[in-house]
Amino acid sequence: MPTKILSVDDEMDLELLLTQYFRRKIRKGEYEFHFAHNGVEALTMMLQHKDFDIILSDINMPEMDGLTLLTKINEMQNPALKCIMVSAYGDMGNIRQAMNNGAFDFATKPIDLDDLSVTIEKAIEQINYIKQSQQEHSQLESLKTDLAVAGEIQQAILPRVFPPFPEIEDILDVAASMTPAKDVGGDFYDFFRIDEERIGFVMADVSGKGVPAAIFMAVSRTLIRAIGMQGIKAEETMMRANELLCKESVNCMFVTVFYAIYNTKTGEVEYCNAGHNSPYLIHANGQVEALPMSTNCMIGAIEGLTFNPGSLKMEKGDMLVMYTDGVNEAVNNDFEEYGDQRLLNTLSQLQGKACQETIDGLLDSVKTFTDGAPQSDDITLLSFKRK
């Protein structure tokens, strides 16, 4: 697109002078000149054609002088529109006022067209830079909007209705929370009925951050849920999910998973920990213990793996608390980590609470500890309690 220049001057011979001097650029389509003879006429043209790039305006004109025109142009708040003011040699008072009022540059009469050409080229560089910045800003705003919508979608695909199983609310308490560090996160939790007696619980953390992690999170969550609802063993669920995710993984992405199958009748839990943080079991008597550390690899990275299972028995009043490393690795302003011991102590203090109270208490403890420091990782929690 040509650079559109509006020359505003009551001297008619300037039009011929400019079109003659810049004829080559005009022919090549680089410049496009328009002419007005006073400020009022110029404003009218600018309202009709809002794509002018440069205003070359005389200061001393009838009906509306150049300084008044400059003020009107400033009110348009278009940083990509540059004004070059022209005045008689020695009229430094008006020139200084024009520069103070936001003019890009100035020229003096009689106009040195070689010097004016350099000034116009300099203005074009600034205009192109501003337009590029505006375009990038628009793209960023659009991306920001898309990310916000993606974050809402991501939250929507996670179970958010509590209690999730009202028909067994008297024997099972469940609560969960996911707070992404960015607009979208890579953590997820899930729970679903397998049959009349068994419920699957999932806590997972995808490698990386942002949009790639969020997409891989959605794929992982869908696969694990679909496989788990077939009712197969926890370790077999992880093995099948690993094979499928290895085929979908890009840039060596993987996901750590703790998958538990809880029997609502017996309190028995069979689980498989695929490289995830060890959950904590809060006993009804107040004792808190971490489950054995995982000996399994994460899923989605290496094909052909087998996974070792684990099991436990939950008595009435026992609660299992699952979490991602955004909890224990949360840092304060001194770059000190929240840590496993502080997590253990906090859970001990929350013994006897309902699942939602336990999660809220743990989140409050982490928030107090970090004391306003930026959240460096997603914080996700899932707990269930045998009542």
Main beta sheet: strand number and arrangement? 5 strands, parallel
Helical fraction: 25-40%
Q: List SSEs in N-to-C order.
A: EHHEHEHEHEHEEEHHEEEEEEHHHE
Structural class: alpha/beta
Cα gyration radius (Å): 34 Å
The tally of helices reads 11
Shape: elongated
Distance between the termini: 72 Å
How much is the average pLDDT? 92
Estimate what percentage of residues fall within beta strands: 15-25%
Unreliable stretches, pLDDT < 50, 5 or more residues?
none
Characterization of this structure:
There is one protein chain. 39% of the residues lie in helices and 24% in strands. The protein is an alpha/beta fold and 387 residues long. The strands form three sheets. It has a five-stranded parallel sheet, with helices on both faces. Strands 6-15-14-11-12 form a five-stranded antiparallel sheet. Strand 3 (54-58), helix 4 and strand 4 (82-88) form a beta-alpha-beta unit. The model has no long low-confidence stretch (mean pLDDT 92).
Topology:
Elements: E1 3-8, H1 13-21, H2 23-27, E2 31-36, H3 39-48, E3 54-58, H4 66-75, E4 82-88, H5 92-100, E5 105-109, H6 113-157, E6 172-179, E7 187-193, E8 198-206, H7 210-228, H8 234-248, E9 255-263, E10 268-274, E11 280-282, E12 288-290, E13 310-313, E14 319-323, H9 325-328, H10 340-349, H11 355-370, E15 379-386
Parallel strand pairs: 1-2, 1-3, 3-4, 4-5
Antiparallel strand pairs: 6-15, 7-8, 8-9, 9-10, 10-13, 11-12, 11-14, 14-15
Helix pairs in contact: 3-4, 7-8
